[in-house]
């Protein structure tokens, strides 16, 4: 029986968001979207979290979605939503469902626009431009032009978001958010995925044959395992098969890294050396939920036919496709296929522990590995990783952090597929509010400069985030691929890759955060205990890295002749 109770269209959306686990909506205000903002302020159960930068607000919603399954951001029409495009594109690529909420000129505004040819503020003149732009990076992009059927349209879009784990764009005419519609009924649930049992059985038969024939198979876990909540299924398969397993960089800590079958994170040639050596002798890769990027070109080029790739909607072995094979059905099917086989579980041969680094003198200048290993050591000594999230963006530190081992499940966050500079600092807000974990951010200086205002919001929310800025005053990854010899003694950097010098402790003070600078191992050892006890406000720490210090992981990735180097230097006329 249909409900006779009426609610505003804005409240309809808020009720649905609350049912789906959203407890905070990130926002930057604007007059067009004020009707939704007023409803949000009055709504019991969802808090409005103001940000001062649209990109930062969208990054925060992305970080929130990584832990809760859905994020939401409310932005001004045009100038606000378009400022967030980069972050929403990243959420689309990395399978993070974010609801972008906005509003456009009202019905009365539009009458003037049409009758008198008025160009309203923040408008391009095309009143359909919002959905046109966002349809490329969302799974639903729509305008609510009136309250008739608004609830059904909102439901359809939200179901698309939670089913496909990708963003949606909801824009309403300014007057519509306050108009009424019937209250939501029931609960929303993801749609069942397309499923072809014949295709699944064929994929399972081929997989079993490949695994049985392999001398050295490995399981590689990708980010879709986390996004679709399949960690426990993946773990059961790993333990029943006995196969060693690795993860992609994006999916690092999708399972607890202390597991005896874990061989380290595989990040192409940037991987821990023992992990790279192991992967070199692998003759069958069962890639589950993996999104391969060009970081993995060397693996793909070696023998693509030996890779069994299963994503959320299909499986493939080499060039053979098996459509309509959901990842969860494949995991269960393969587990049942291998269970009666006496060859499984295979004997596990874990990698030897990485050689302990020699103790460095106290006055040793910091580099990426020395900083990360010292941070890791102090976090472990205090048992803090289980309640913290290590957040890294597209920087040298991201690839260096791939070599850390033994981190607990769900303790690592990265924008490793989309690779947007600054994501790590912006998303820390959403990670903290969505998970309750303490954000430990390690940012490149170039990325931090793009989103430094997010520190102000961390202060405003009284979050005890730690933001370490690796300060070498150069776009190091970019420079390494342009000319790696710049990092040799006497080398010169390309002028366009050199960054300005910032006074980070003074910047922190201006934002109301604690500010520090460290340049040696002794200074880091002295500061970390103090930082780890800090409560009630964030800290910004400049970690001074000598400009010509290149992370060895980046040196391997950018080595002339490497698969990634060749790909990045490809020309149409080659």
Automatic annotation (TrEMBL):
| GO terms assigned for molecular function | magnesium ion binding; pyruvate decarboxylase activity; thiamine pyrophosphate binding
Where is the Thiamine pyrophosphate enzyme N-terminal TPP-binding domain positioned along the sequence? 8-111
- Keyword Acyltransferase set for record: no
Q: Where does Mg(2+) bind?
A: 445, 472
**What are the Thiamine pyrophosphate enzyme central domain coordinates in residue numbering?**
208-328
Q: What is its cofactor?
A: thiamine diphosphate; Mg(2+); a metal cation
Source lineage: Bacteria, Pseudomonadati, Pseudomonadota, Gammaproteobacteria, Pseudomonadales
Transmembrane segments annotated in the record for this chain: none
The protein's name is Thiamine pyrophosphate-binding protein
Cofactor annotation remark: Binds 1 Mg(2+) per subunit.
Q: Which Pfam families match?
A: TPP_enzyme_C, TPP_enzyme_M, TPP_enzyme_N
Instruction: Report the record's Gene Ontology biological process terms.
Output: aromatic amino acid family catabolic process to alcohol via Ehrlich pathway
């Amino acid at each position: 029986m249909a409900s006779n109770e009426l609610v505003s269209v804005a409240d309809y959306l808020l009720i649905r968001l609350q049912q789906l686990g959203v407890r905070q909506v990130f926002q930057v205000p604007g007059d067009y979207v004020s009707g939704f903002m007023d409803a949000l302020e009055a709504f019991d159960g969802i808090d409005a979290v103001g940000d001062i930068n649209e990109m930062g607000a969208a990054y925060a919603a992305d970080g929130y979605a990584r832990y809760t399954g859905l994020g939401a951001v409310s932005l001004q029409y045009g100038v606000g939503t378009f400022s967030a495009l980069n972050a929403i594109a990243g959420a689309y690529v990395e399978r993070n469902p974010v609801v972008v909420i906005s509003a456009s000129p009202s019905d009365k505004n539009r009458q003037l626009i049409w009758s008198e040819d008025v160009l309203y503020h923040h408008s391009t003149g095309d009143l359909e431009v919002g959905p046109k732009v966002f349809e490329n990076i969302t799974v639903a992009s729509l305008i609510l032009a009136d309250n008739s059927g608004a609830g059904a349209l909102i439901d359809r879009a939200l179901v698309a978001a939670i089913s496909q784990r990708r963003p949606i764009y909801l824009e309403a005419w300014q007057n519509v958010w306050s108009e009424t519609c019937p209250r939501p009924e029931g609960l929303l649930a993801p749609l069942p995925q397309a499923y072809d049992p014949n295709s699944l059985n064929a994929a399972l038969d081929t997989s079993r044959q490949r695994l049985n024939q392999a001398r050295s198979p490995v399981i590689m876990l990708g980010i879709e395992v986390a996004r679709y909540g399949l960690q426990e299924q993946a773990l059961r398969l790993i333990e029943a098969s006995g196969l060693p397993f690795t993860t992609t960089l994006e999916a690092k800590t999708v399972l607890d890294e202390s597991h005896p079958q874990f061989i380290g994170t595989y990040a192409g040639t940037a991987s821990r050396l023992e992990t790279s050596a192991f992967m070199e002798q692998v003759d069958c890769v069962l890639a589950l939920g993996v999104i391969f990027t060009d970081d993995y070109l060397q693996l793909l080029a070696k023998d693509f036919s030996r890779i069994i790739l299963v994503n959320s909607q299909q499986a493939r072995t080499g060039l053979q496709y098996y459509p309509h094979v959901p990842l969860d059905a494949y995991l269960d099917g393969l587990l049942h296929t291998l269970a009666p086989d006496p060859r499984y579980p295979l004997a596990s041969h874990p990698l030897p522990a990485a050689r302990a680094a020699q103790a460095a003198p106290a006055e040793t200048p910091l580099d990426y590995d020395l900083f990360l290993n010292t941070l890791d050591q102090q976090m472990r000594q205090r048992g803090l990783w289980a309640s913290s999230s290590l957040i890294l963006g597209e920087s040298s530190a991201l690839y260096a952090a791939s070599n850390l081992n033994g981190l607990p499940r769900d303790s690592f966050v990265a924008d490793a597929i989309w690779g947007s500079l600054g994501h790590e600092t912006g998303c820390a807000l959403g990670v903290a509010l969505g998970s309750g974990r303490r954000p430990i951010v390690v940012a490149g200086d170039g990325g931090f400069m793009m989103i430094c205002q997010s520190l102000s919001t961390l202060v405003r929310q009284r979050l005890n985030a730690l933001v370490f800025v690796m300060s070498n005053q150069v776009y190091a990854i970019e420079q390494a691929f342009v000319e790696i010899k710049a990092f040799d003694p006497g080398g010169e950097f390309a002028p366009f890759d050199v960054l300005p010098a910032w006074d980070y402790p003074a910047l922190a003070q201006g934002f109301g955060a604690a500010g520090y600078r460290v340049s040696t191992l002794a200074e880091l050892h002295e500061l970390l205990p103090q930082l780890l006890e800090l409560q009630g406000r964030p800290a910004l720490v400049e970690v001074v890295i000598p400009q010509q210090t290149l992370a060895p992981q980046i040196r391997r990735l950018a080595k002339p002749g490497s698969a990634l180097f060749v790909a990045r230097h490809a020309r149409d006329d080659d």
